[in-house]
Amino acid sequence: MNSLLIRNARIARPDGATIDGDVLCEAGRIARIAPAITARASETIDAQGMLLLPGIIDPQVHFREPGKEYKEDLASGSHAAVAGGVTSFLEMPNTDPSTTTQAALDDKLQRAAAKSVANYGFFIGATPHNLEEINRATPACGIKIFMGASTGSLLVDKPQDLERIFANGTRLIAVHAEDEVRIRARKAQFAGRTDYPVHSEIRDAECALNATKLAMSLSKKYKRRLHILHLSTKEEANFLREDKPAWVTAEVIPNHLFLNIKDYSTQGSRVQMNPPIRTAEDNALLWQTLRDGVIDFVATDHAPHTLEEKSKPYPDSPSGMPGVEISLPLMLTEMVAGRCTLAEIQRWMCWGPAVGYGIANKGKILEGWDADLTLVDVATRKLVRDENTFTKVRWSPYSGRELTGWPVYTVVNGEIAFEHGRVRDKVRGRPLQFG
Ligand code: DOR
Predict the structure, then answer these.
(1) Is residue 1's pLDDT more than 90?
(2) 118 and 112 in contact (C-beta within 8 Å)?
(3) Active-site residue among 22, 58, 157, 301?
(4) Minimum CA distance residue for ligand 1 atom 4
(5) Is 301 considered catalytic here?
(6) What are the pLDDT digits (tens) for 397-412?
(7) Dihedral, CA of residue 355, residue 123, residue 114 and residue 426, to nearest 10
(8) CATH assignment at residue 104
(9) Which ligand 1 atom minimizes the distance to the CA of 272?
(10) How many domains does the chain have?
(11) Chain segment 219-275, per-residue pLDDT in tens
(12) Residues 121, 251 within the same domain
């Protein structure tokens, strides 16, 4: 039986306290946590000076397979994941073809089984015509609705189609909330502008708020489990703060916490995404809303495009940025600076997403729970550089920033998947189950 002994770690408890000790992983589970374990194991890690966290769950990534493997695939995307301490990911259906049928979902699951080093789950994408399929397809972490068009061809923007989906079924609905009618009108209004910042003007705060309100009203009408993806504006944050039923969750991504429209001047289309980056004021209010628990967890919306594609003039430059490997270093840097806590990081990035998607036994370091772990060095500062990234597109919107808190080892189901800058590409993740 494969076993792994992690010795002398500072172990994060779910409440944010830490204890010094050893962790023994057996058969993919955390078998024992104790001050000193003498058992023999197939592999041993000396974790002296390092902090042991539950593996990060990234509940929103785009890994481009099938169809756009030149940008990313389930191997490269999962390598980037484990390099960033991410042990499980939920992947979006806007691939080519879109994941809108059981057959397309099965195809992705097979591909992931063959090449993903991290654990994986997939969304099923809604169209105006696949109601039965979205409710039946299994295993799926939820139904994804693009209420506004983004990368790919998925779109459900007619109120009657949205209503039909919310009214029928019980499964979680995750929405990309942007108002397609308003986006189209504003595209026409701003036609001719080719500067990248116009993207944030076209898809303004009202686009996001309108769609978030519509999704919320449908969710309330049918008591339907709703998850609002990548909340980006202070207006939406205030709206949720006023009234958010227990069956509604929301997430924020680092790009809307750490980047704003000032970054267009140095980064141009690198920071173009949907929903767009906003203002410093939005950053601050989203942080507060996350701290207050109104926003439930953090995803990355890892959405790689090549720099060549990104260099096209607006509006031909694609929207989206890679991010799966950098969210933990960004957040740990905040923690080291005293701006968030170890308990918050675990809630936002480990057990929060697990609870939201009904994933059992993940997100906490507890005996009997899955041995998905990341061992981080919170002392070393390191510069983010495009050439050091693991994503196939080899760039990061955070290049040039110095961050503190980097994964040294990532353990998936009790196996070392990443160590000292290298991925063990023979390791295979498992399909996630959703309760
Ligand atoms: O900017 C984005 N890029 N937003 C999305 O909703 C999709 C994503 C992508 O797949 O490129």
Answers:
(1) no
(2) no
(3) 301
(4) 274
(5) yes
(6) 999 999 999 999 999 9
(7) -40
(8) 3.20.20.140
(9) 1
(10) 2
(11) 999 999 999 999 999 999 999 999 899 999 999 999 999 999 999 999 999 999 999
(12) yes
Quick one: which atom of ligand 1 is closest to the CA of 152? 10
User: Is the CB of residue 320 below 6 angstroms from any atom belonging to ligand 1?
Assistant: yes
Domain that holds residue 41: 3-52+365-382+403-423
Tens-place pLDDT, residues 79-97:
999 999 999 999 999 999 9
How many H helices and E strands in the chain?
15, 18
Residue type, 425: D
Mark whether 231 and 160 lie in a shared domain.
yes
- Judged against a pLDDT cut of 80, whether residue 63 lies above it is answered with yes
pLDDT value at residue 352: 98
Span 105-117, average pLDDT: 98
Residues 45 and 182 in one domain: no
Q: Within this chain, do residues 10 and 65 fall inside the same structural domain, yes or no?
A: no
pLDDT tens digits, 162-188: 999 999 999 999 999 999 999 999 999
Q: What is the DSSP string of 135-169?
A: HH-SS-S-EEEESS--SSS-----HHHHHHHHHS-
Residue 119 tokens, joined: 């654990």
Evaluate whether 92 touches 62 at the Cβ level (below 8 Å): yes
Ligand 1 near 273 CB (within 6 A): yes
For the Cβ of 127 lying below 6 angstroms from any atom of ligand 1, the answer is no
Q: Amino acid letter at 220? A: K
Tell me whether residue 292 is in a domain: yes
Across the range 32-58, mean pLDDT stands at 97
State the chain's mean pLDDT as an integer: 98
Within this chain, do residues 346 and 408 fall inside the same structural domain, yes or no? no
Which residue minimizes the CA distance to atom 2 of ligand 1?
320
Same domain, 90 and 183: yes
Whether residue 13 is found in the same domain as residue 63:
no
Same domain, 193 and 248: yes
